[in-house]
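Q&A FORM
Asked by: J.P.
Topic: structure of ParB/Sulfiredoxin domain-containing protein

PROVIDED:
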Amino acid sequence: MKKVKVAYEMISIEDLYVNPENDRYINDSEDEISAMIDMFGVANGNPRVEMVNLAKDISENGLNPFEWPIVWYDEELKKYIVIEGNRRITCIKLMTQFKENKEILRSIPEAEKIYKLSYPEGAIECVVYEDLYEAQKVLAKIHQDINEGIGRKQWDAYAKQKANSKLGNGSKTYSIIQFLREYEGVSPELLECMAGSRWTSKLERVVSFRKFKEVYNIEFTSDFSMIYKDNVEQVYHMMEKLVMDLINLPATGNFRTKKDFDNYTDNLPAEFITQVPDENGKNVTENNTAEKIGEESCQVKDSNEVESQEQKNDTNSQEDGIQDDVQEEKEPEFDTPRKISNQHKSLRKALRLSKDYAEDMFGCLGEKGKEIIIELESINYIDYPNASAALCRSILEYVVKMWLLESKHPEQFKEGDLPGSYNSCINDLANRKVLNDKQHKMLRRCANKEYFIDFLNSCIHADSKICVQQTALIDGWKCIRILVELYVEGHQK
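REPLIED BY: S.T.
REPLY: Here is the structure written out as tokens.
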């Protein structure tokens, strides 16, 4: 275990320095006085009331001997920067060093209540860390909930993101916040709203939705650096709109679920959506109506109409019956394993298994299962998205039933409740060590985060509000085929 250099010292109140770079602040403070003023305006809770309550408790009962402030000596300032305990030290300084300070009183009228209190001690026992990084590591571990402002004050979502980034644990959410803060032309109104509202957790939820990437064309590296194809001005324009709408909830709608976010993005004006065309030369949206995002990858058909061959030729002109052109089509980027039968050989895009299996290995699936796999591996999911979705759901229900019938709890398969049966199946397989941790996590995310089964059901029932998106269909299929392939391979032993 690494030995951390720590000392316990009595430090005068004047030598302590309230941290202007406190993780609670959206924007760093200019100096110590500004930091104390900002402490009364942090986003979470009711800081003005809580700070007064905390000062009263310290004046009457003293500091908690089990919660010494954590400090680090700054050679440039010649002061001890408070890493943990800024709320307590602020209260003590307002009772002593900065008592009756007019600048603070003008900004924080509640300070007058603290000025009337007293703190008899001139020095405070502190934990002094030689290494700032080690002090910040401890800080990230100890924050808990509060007790009407007297106990440790829990960090809000932004403070947690900021503190974790200092320890090398960045996040997509924090990268977006930093992008906005550091943008050269950032709006003062945006900065003010970001500093005064509880919205970071909402952004964290939104960034996790699949459609975020589709609408804004933003991705992240392994260290959570932003990657975008639009110019920086457009990215700022889009993110400013999103964050302001999150802050202005509920006026702009509800962002609690994926469906809420889908509805929000479907109604976004075109100027707030990525302007970079996709690989087919089309933008995510072409007008400012509620036209569906990702229209190039879906076909929403009226239940009373049958799409004519002429319409199909217009949208698929490069594949219009010309075999030479079909043969030149590039394979899709995702796995494209073999097809089961030469009879179903196809150069068109299809949902396929990821491995090359011998024909006789599929006997364990029975004729029904084998036929579904054959159809999936031969049908063009671009031309027939709804049929592909129906086949995906069919093989998913089929293989889930096969797995559960072989388990110790076959009764867990319930007709009409595929989501419940699916969860029972993957939990049982994880307990039996059939699934490794990575596979289990991937399968659970498919069910719980992306609502993939609900998506398939909507496609099958021709819900006019749902379009079949290539990304969703492919990603979901990659999960389904894990269950199929494990079943096939497990029955060869």
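FOLLOW-UP: Strands lie at 6-12, 16-17, 70-74, 79-84, 123-129, 218-220, 226-228.
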